[in-house]
Amino acid sequence: MKVLVTGAKGQLAMEIRSILENKSSELGPVDKLYSNSQMIYVARDDLDITRLSDVINFINKYRPDIVINCGAYTNVDKCESDYESAFKVNSIGPRNLAMACEKIGAKLVHISTDYVFKGEGNVPFKEYDLPHPVSVYGKTKLLGEQYVRENCSRYFIVRTSWLYGRYGKNFVYTIMKAAKEKGHLDVVNDQRGNPTNAEDLAYHILKLSLTHEYGIYHCTGKGECSWYDFASKIVEYSKIECTVSPMTSESLKRAAKRPEYSSLDNMMLRCTIGDEMRNWGTALKLFIDKQR
Predict the structure, then answer these.
(1) In the predicted model, what is the mean pLDDT of the chain?
(2) N-terminal to C-terminal alpha carbon distance within the chain
(3) What is the extent of the structural domain holding 15?
(4) Can you tell me the distance from the alpha carbon of 133 to that of 144, in angstroms, rounded to the nearest whole number?
(5) Which of 13, 28, 44, 140 could, after both became Cys, cross-link 90 (CB 3.0–4.6 A)?
(6) How far apart, in whole angstroms, are the C-alpha atoms of residue 117 and residue 166?
């Protein structure tokens, strides 16, 4: 079996690689099928997914059985001004991979986001709820989903949110660093969602990839909180001397609008391979304990 992973320098792809090299995760061992698999990790320098001819030639050359697309333009505010780049990476890139995968009969796992939803209400969004993004980032990610569905018959679209892990930049590392340096933080308290440990997400992606349970999935940590709650727990678990105060999103004056409520319900996981995602607080504490 051959598995191609794009976005190789990102935190999710690096987590997938780490789990496979260790042959297990905190949630348990990975399937033995991966032990004898050829893993191909590519960053943008190796493969520009926005170029259809490059993607088709690359896929035809290596003929992977599974493609896991972790590549994305994730700077939410910058997407508002650099919308063509966001469109190319978040929409055209997945389309190209979907077309190439369909030609050789490969499965495609495409990672998407909670930002495809408008963010109104107080009930976690299920996979059948209609998306309505309010930012360029969310709009380009949704179009990427649509292109995958239109061009590939063997797809898994996996929406996640508030991702953090051992590799790269993320909210947990940012808060820990700022807390040590400043001693006081003001954090948004009017947006709610699900913090997600990258190791938990990677484990479920690898498990899902071996099945034929195609469709749209939500895969996030259990439970919900605000960014303020999230930051407060990071500071508490890190045992850093720092106070955290709530603030409004409006006071930040950011370029892109964020959904006020984007909590996701992992219904499809429960109905297929099983939902082993941990409670967000439990996973966060174990993660921070390992950093100390």
Answers:
(1) 97
(2) 38
(3) 2-170+195-223+262-279
(4) 13
(5) 140
(6) 27
